[in-house]
Design brief:
Layout lengths: L1 H25 L26 E6 L4 E6 L4 E7 L7 E3 L5 E6 L23 E6 L4 E6 L5 E6 L5 E6 L4 E6 L5 E6 L4 E6 L5 E6 L4 E6 L5 E6 L8 E2 L5 E6 L4 E6 L4 E7 L10 E3 L5 E5 L5 E6 L4 E7 L4 E6 L5 E6 L4 E6 L4 E7 L4 E7 L1
Antiparallel strand pairs: 1-2, 1-28, 2-3, 4-5, 5-6, 6-7, 8-9, 9-10, 10-11, 12-13, 13-14, 14-15, 16-17, 17-18, 18-19, 20-21, 21-22, 22-23, 24-25, 25-26, 26-27
């Protein structure tokens, strides 16, 4: 009886175990599926390659695209604020300064009376670290900043304030305003002569270039140039300046020491609207984007003759040159891309998608 009872108890336990297994299976579980899953592998962002970069301002996107030059690809996007336009690199290459504006986007054919009021709280200069690719701070720099230049030592920032007809000098260390100067209507371009002594400010509203003493920040002279001057490019030896006239389809050549006009170059091509300008490091060539003309023009600075062109994209504006002079880069607004142009072959080697309405760009070695 004792043995029969033991056998009965063992049989009962086996039956209970089988029932438990059957119940688990009916619920969709099994010993295999009940094991803990391996933890998911974290997504690691691809490392950003070392080497030269382009910092591209996206006016409609409110951010800055970082493009790796070696691989011709966008590697980072840095949020900035409203309407990033003009951009400059500090002399030591550690910082990028970007002009930000809360004024609404206008332009040809836009009824400005129907635009929303400006957001003055958004006006300023964004300071970006080229190492960490982060926005460090915003410097208040007067109303509606559009373009900027830097002193040779990087201690002073020069800003055009478009809607008030002024230029402003700012201490980069603490952001305080050093001085302001009245210039022409709707000042846009500002550039420092390579010797660091003089600034040229272009005013598209009244077709004037204001010559400013960089140390005293006083206006030395005003020059009448072609219709809607956009920017200034200097030869490396500070002897000459070139100012494009967007509505005049021309380029004004200026003696940059005596501040007098030497010549006006009539530019050739369809829908030529010269805007951004740059000079090759050896001073032999002047490059200018043509906006709605879709091209970059090449001008021989010895003869002041137009010697070539290349189609780069939709409405190119900003332009930069590599330090060796072999490559050009253009910001093509409506195309939302940047073109890489080989100077010798005068051909586009690559196009890189960036943000919305790229406006300006700067090369950081």
């Amino acid at each position: 009886m004792i043995r029969a009872s033991a056998l009965l108890k063992k049989a009962l336990l086996v039956a209970l175990a089988a029932a438990s297994t059957l119940s688990a299976c009916s619920q969709g579980s099994s010993p295999a599926t009940e094991q803990k899953a391996a933890p998911a592998t974290a997504s690691v962002p691809a490392p950003i390659p070392a080497g030269p970069k382009l910092f591209v301002t996206n006016e409609a996107g409110g951010d800055l695209t970082v493009v790796d030059v070696g691989t011709a690809r966008a590697v980072s996007t840095i949020p900035l604020g409203k309407r990033p336009r003009g951009v400059r690199v500090s002399p030591d290459g550690t910082l990028v300064y970007v002009a930000l504006s809360g004024s609404p986007i206008g332009g040809p054919g836009v009824d400005e009376s129907k635009l929303p009021p400006p957001d003055k709280g958004a006006d300023g200069i964004g300071v970006v670290s080229t190492k960490d690719l982060t926005l460090l701070r915003i410097i208040r720099a007067g109303s509606d900043p559009e373009q900027i230049a830097l002193s040779l030592d990087g201690k002073t920032l020069f800003v055009t304030n478009e809607d008030v007809g002024e230029a402003t000098a700012i201490d980069t260390s603490d952001g305080h305003v050093i001085a302001t100067a009245k210039v022409g209507a709707e000042p846009e371009g500002v550039n420092l002569r390579p010797d660091g002594k003089v600034l040229y400010v272009t005013s598209e509203g009244d077709n004037v270039v204001s010559v400013i003493d960089a140390a005293k920040f006083t206006v030395l002279k005003k020059l009448d140039v072609g219709a809607r001057p956009r920017s200034t490019a200097f030869l490396p030896d500070s002897s000459r300046a070139y100012v494009p006239s967007e509505n005049g389809s021309s380029m004004t050549v200026i003696d940059a020491q005596k501040h007098r006009i030497l010549k006006t170059i009539t530019l050739k091509g369809e829908l030529v609207r010269p805007m951004g300008t740059a000079v090759s490091p050896d001073g032999a060539l002047l490059f200018t984007t043509t906006g709605r003309g879709k091209h970059v023009l090449f001008i021989d600075t010895k003869t002041n003759a137009q010697v070539g062109d290349v189609e780069v994209g939709d409405r190119p504006w900003g332009i930069a040159v590599s330090p060796d002079g072999k490559m050009l880069f253009t910001a093509n607004g409506p195309g939302n891309d940047v073109s890489f142009v080989d100077v010798d072959s005068r051909s586009v080697k690559a196009k890189v998608k960036v943000g919305q309405r790229p406006w300006g760009l700067a090369y950081v070695p």
